[in-house]
């Protein structure tokens, strides 16, 4: 079976709708025909200053949301990145075959370091895409289901795999990004030309999976829409409506034209009310299941420990091959 690997950073108390629609939701079906590894990217969450007291809890909450969204810890491997030391070990090796200029060209680094101020950006933030490459290559992944914003990081991952293979002999599978065109980018409700993101300018632009239905419905009702009254899908002229239609379609599994057909001739407000219902119907069961899991943290931690054990069966072997090829003296 092909292997699939992906993860989300536990950098907030809840995932947002972009994480869900662009990534996690798409992982669920991949479990049928692939061998999947889904991890909580906690090592990535410290590239911006983190609150130590919050990090552990956010890591659990993120894992609980994976399961609540449909990731089955029996069929898939569900783990916490920091529980599997080979991620960080491989990252170091890959750092040493990554060009400084190459890493400097990562647009996410440029954006984030500009936002933090160049003086505050850390070496960790700079090396972040290389750690991401290690996350993928350590499992010999074939496919990586992510949103559009990770495309450049996947290109770097492929380049590093090919470079390593050429220099040291065939070691890594060269992975492919799996980016679903329709839902690859969910936009901020208040600024529908910027991606929905936890670091968004306005709190109202963001729908959180674990927020109360009322709060989310209110944000959807006040979403920025466009001039005119016509409901049709036009990303250029009507980015706000296009975004609402995208989310609607993704969450219901109905095509965009089908949804447009239902709302043709109706008002923007109707679409918003309809979407708020769809979001509530989707999130209610996820919230209930996540809460159950979080009520029993010992059981959740046990699941994660088992996941780390399963994951290490793969990662230990890859790292041994890497160290051997690179010429490290084997420890007796
Ligand atoms: P992160 O935590 O920023 O986002 C997690 C996933 O959600 C997707 N995403 C979106 N998709 C559509 N619309 C949006 N507005 C939106 N916002 C976020 C992201 O594309 C991603 O798939 N570096 C990664 C985490 C990571 C990773 C990995 C992923 C670390 N190692 C290895 C895959 C494989 C990140 O920061 O994602």
TrEMBL record:
Catalytic EC class: ligase
Keywords: Aminoacyl-tRNA synthetase, ATP-binding, Cytoplasm, Ligase, Nucleotide-binding, Protein biosynthesis
UniProt-listed Enzyme Commission number(s): 6.1.1.2
Reactions accelerated catalytically: tRNA(Trp) + L-tryptophan + ATP = L-tryptophyl-tRNA(Trp) + AMP + diphosphate + H(+)
Chief localisation class: cytoplasm
Aminoacyl-tRNA synthetase recorded as keyword: yes
Signal peptide region: none
Keyword match Nucleotide-binding: yes
UniProt xrefs under InterPro entries: aa-tRNA-synth_I_CS, aa-tRNA-synth_Ic, Rossmann-like_a/b/a_fold, Trp-tRNA-ligase, Trp-tRNA-ligase_bac-type, Trp-tRNA_synthetase
Residue numbers covered by motif 'KMSKS' region: 195-199
Binding of L-tryptophan, residues: 135
Entry-linked CDD domains: TrpRS_core
Subcellular location: Cytoplasm
Binding site for ATP: 9-11, 18-19, 147-149, 186, 195-199
Listed transmembrane segments: none
Sample GO molecular function, one term: ligase activity
UniProt xrefs under HAMAP family: Trp_tRNA_synth_B
Subunit structure: Homodimer.
Family listed: Belongs to the class-I aminoacyl-tRNA synthetase family.
Function text: Catalyzes the attachment of tryptophan to tRNA(Trp).
Name of the protein: Tryptophan--tRNA ligase
Organism of this sequence: Kocuria aegyptia
Highest classification ranks of the organism: Bacteria, Bacillati, Actinomycetota, Actinomycetes, Micrococcales
């Amino acid at each position: 079976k092909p292997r699939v690997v992906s993860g989300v950073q536990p950098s907030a108390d809840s995932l947002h709708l972009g994480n869900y629609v662009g990534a996690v939701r798409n992982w669920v079906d991949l479990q049928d025909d692939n061998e999947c590894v889904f991890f909580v990217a906690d090592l990535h969450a410290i590239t911006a200053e983190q609150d130590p007291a919050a990090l552990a809890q956010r890591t659990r909450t993120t894992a609980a949301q994976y399961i609540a969204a449909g990731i089955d810890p029996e069929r898939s491997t569900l783990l916490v990145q920091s529980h599997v030391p080979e991620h960080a070990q491989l990252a170091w090796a890959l750092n040493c075959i990554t060009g400084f200029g190459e890493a400097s060209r990562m647009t996410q680094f440029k954006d984030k370091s500009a936002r933090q101020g160049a003086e505050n950006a850390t070496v960790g933030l700079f090396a972040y895409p290389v750690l991401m490459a290690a996350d993928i290559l350590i499992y010999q992944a074939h496919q990586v289901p992510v949103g559009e914003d990770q495309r450049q990081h996947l290109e770097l991952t492929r380049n590093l795999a090919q470079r390593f293979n050429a220099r040291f002999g065939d070691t890594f599978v060269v992975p492919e990004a799996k980016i679903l065109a329709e839902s690859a980018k969910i936009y901020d409700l208040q600024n529908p030309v910027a991606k929905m993101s936890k670091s968004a300018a306005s709190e109202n632009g963001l729908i959180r999976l674990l927020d109360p239905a009322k709060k989310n419905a209110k944000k959807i009702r006040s979403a920025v829409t466009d001039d005119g009254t016509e409901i049709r899908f036009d990303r250029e002229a009507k980015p706000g409506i296009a975004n609402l239609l995208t989310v609607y379609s993704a969450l219901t599994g109905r095509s965009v034209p089908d949804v447009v057909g239902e709302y043709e001739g109706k008002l923007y407000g109707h679409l918003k009310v309809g979407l708020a219902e769809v979001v509530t119907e989707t999130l209610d069961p996820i919230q209930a299941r996540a809460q159950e899991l979080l009520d029993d943290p010992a059981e959740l931690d046990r699941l994660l420990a088992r996941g780390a054990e399963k994951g290490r069966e793969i990662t230990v072997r890859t790292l041994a091959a890497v160290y051997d090829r690179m010429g490290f003296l084997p420890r007796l």
